[in-house]
Specification:
Blueprint: E1 2-4, H1 7-20, E2 40-43, H2 50-64, E3 69-73, H3 81-85, E4 91-94, H4 98-109, E5 113-118, H5 122-125, H6 132-154, H7 162-186, E6 212-217, H8 222-239, E7 242-243, H9 256-278, H10 286-306, E8 311-314, E9 317-320, H11 321-328, H12 342-349, E10 354-356, E11 359-361, H13 366-397, H14 402-405, H15 413-440, E12 443-450, E13 453-460, H16 464-468, H17 472-531
Parallel strand pairs: 1-2, 2-3, 3-4, 4-5, 7-13
Antiparallel strand pairs: 5-6, 8-9, 10-11, 12-13
Length: 532
């Protein structure tokens, strides 16, 4: 291995690596190499510019090809995560310790990829000078966010006392309303909303949280990428998920244990579907095969959730839960907001590159990896929503099933009906109003799993074909938006003309009249004083 680092640091790292692994040989000078190195490690103590780092990395790769390059970065660096992920290096370690460095070297020697980046420090976040509006927004959102985090912790898992649960949910609604009010009052006065939400401390953050970026691939192919994505999502589901989407989800009505089982079952079924699709030779029919397998996938996930041998009384008789649910539930429905599956399947099945911000990147690239993880998370949450809505409908006709599938507050018929009515109203509003607006604005909302939360992500992409397939009512909503865009310049021009006219009247007409009157009064007073 070739280690490029300052003298003292290079000697220290070389001593630690060779003492931990006797079979490793670390060379500090290129002229001392007897052949091509298996790995090039470059330690950077200070980043002058992003272009200089990129140019040097390209030079190292061209000279020592096919040896991978491991870049060691300092803890304090003034580059964004997106800029660092775009660096052409197989490994990126920021402020790494000895054990992390050894693990990364082992992964890269096996042909994999290892990325571990830290979040910007709080000191750099506060370097910018904030105005009054931004300070009020930031401080207010920080206080509300702390209270929301505390309430979310107390609600996960939900308390057994109905009164305490009602108080906590009410408090959460108040805090969310206060957050929206702050954004409405002071949001336009500040520029960086990402600085308003306080992130958890680095010491208490997990590797998959937004405070750190940790991607580890044993190999650089589609199977290794899928295994890493599955492990990350599995860890998030096992730890428990909270709803941070700003909308009501059907899976929130399920018991936390049943919700976890449903998500894990869907993840397992997705793994089996991807294995089946990899055996197919016809890549053009991949999307059609995916659509045909969706009902079977949902049935298998529902079977794993309910249990093959579980029986529950229904109208005085024991009924098998799985058979009853499969006969009642309609698992053939489709979510109109689900993106084209080819963007997710082509990299994971056929190991094809994917388009990320105008660049064709392989699936093992960190930027493509994170986008694939978002697509898989979105499919997982939306598919669970389809199944969760069917389970809520089945529990409405089968009271005994509520104790097995739903949360304790939903055992009451009134609470369950209230939840179902709110979900139906939300669905109608989204289908009639929100979806036409998003189609016209070429936007799509994706659900991603981050740090134990389900968060929305607004994606901009062409949706003209879907816009042309809208019904009459949805077209009227899009037409209203188009009319507003067309009339807005004329309305602004009219308001501007009226404002100019008002300025002329106030300054040239009324102002001069007042001036003449004042001058006449002054002259009259002067004459009267002169006579006296």
């Amino acid at each position: 291995m070739l280690l490029l680092a300052p003298d003292l640091l290079g000697e220290s790292l070389a001593l630690k690596l060779t003492s931990a692994h006797d079979d490793w040989e670390v060379v500090l000078r290129p002229e001392r190499l007897t052949g091509s190195p298996a790995l090039v490690i470059w330690s950077v103590d200070r980043v002058a510019s992003l272009a200089a780092i990129q140019q040097e990395l390209f030079a190292l790769q061209e000279r020592w090809q096919p040896a991978p390059v491991l870049l060691l970065l300092p803890g304090e660096i003034r580059l964004s995560r997106e800029q660092l992920l775009g660096l052409p290096a197989a490994g990126l370690l920021q402020n790494a310790d000895s054990q992390s460095l050894q693990n990364s070297i082992e992964i890269l020697l096996q042909g994999g990829r290892d990325i571990r980046l830290e979040a910007p420090s709080e000191g750099r976040r506060q370097d910018q000078t904030m105005g009054l509006g931004q300070w009020l927004l930031v401080s207010g959102l920080q206080q509300v966010s702390r209270e929301l985090e505390l309430v979310e912790v107390m609600l996960n898992p939900p308390p057994q006392q109905a009164l305490l649960f009602a108080l906590l949910t009410g408090r959460r609604r108040e805090l969310q309303f206060a957050k929206g009010l702050l954004l409405w009052l002071w949001g336009p006065l500040q520029l960086g909303l990402e600085d308003a939400e306080p992130l958890t401390s680095t010491a208490s953050s997990s590797p998959g949280s937004p405070t750190t970026t940790a991607i580890s691939l044993r190999e650089r192919n589609a199977v290794a990428v899928w295994d890493a994505i599955r492990d990350r999502i599995d860890g998030s589901v096992q730890a428990g998920l909270t709803n941070s989407t700003g909308r009501l989800l059907a899976i929130e009505g399920l018991h936390p244990e049943r919700r976890r089982e449903l998500l894990l079952a869907l993840l397992q079924q997705l793994d089996q579907v991807l294995q089946r699709l990899r055996t197919r030779q016809d890549g053009t029919a991949m999307a059609q095969a995916w659509d045909a397998l969706q009902p079977e996938l949902r049935q298998q996930a529902l079977t794993a959730l309910a249990g093959s041998y579980v029986q529950i009384p229904c109208n005085g008789e024991l009924q098998p839960v799985v058979a009853s649910l499969l006969s009642r539930a309609d698992l053939t429905g489709a979510d109109g907001e689900m993106p084209d599956p080819t963007g997710m399947l082509a990299p994971l099945v056929a190991d094809q590159p994917m388009l990320v911000n105008g660049l064709l990147l392989p699936a093992d690239d960190p930027r493509a990896f994170l986008q694939l993880e978002t697509l898989v998370s979105n499919w997982l949450v939306r598919t669970a929503e389809l199944i969760g809505a069917e389970l809520l409908d089945a529990c409405g006709d089968w009271p005994e099933l509520r104790r097995y599938l739903l949360r304790d507050p939903l055992l009451a018929t009134r609470e369950l009906d209230r939840l179902r009515n709110r979900l139906n109203t939300q669905l109608r509003w989204a289908d009639w109003v929100e979806r036409p607006i998003q189609l016209y604005e070429s936007q799509r909302t994706l659900f991603q799993l981050r740090a134990g939360r389900i968060e929305p992500l607004l994606l901009t992409e062409p949706r003209d074909n879907e816009l042309n397939q809208l019904g009459w009512w949805q077209r009227q909503v899009a037409l209203l938006l188009e009319a507003r865009d067309a009339l807005a310049p004329q309305v602004q021009a009219v308001v501007r003309r009226i404002g100019d006219l008002a300025v002329i009247l106030l300054t040239q007409v009324l102002g001069r009249a007042i001036g003449l009157v004042g001058r006449g009064i002054a002259q009259g007073m002067g004459r009267s004083l002169g006579r006296s």
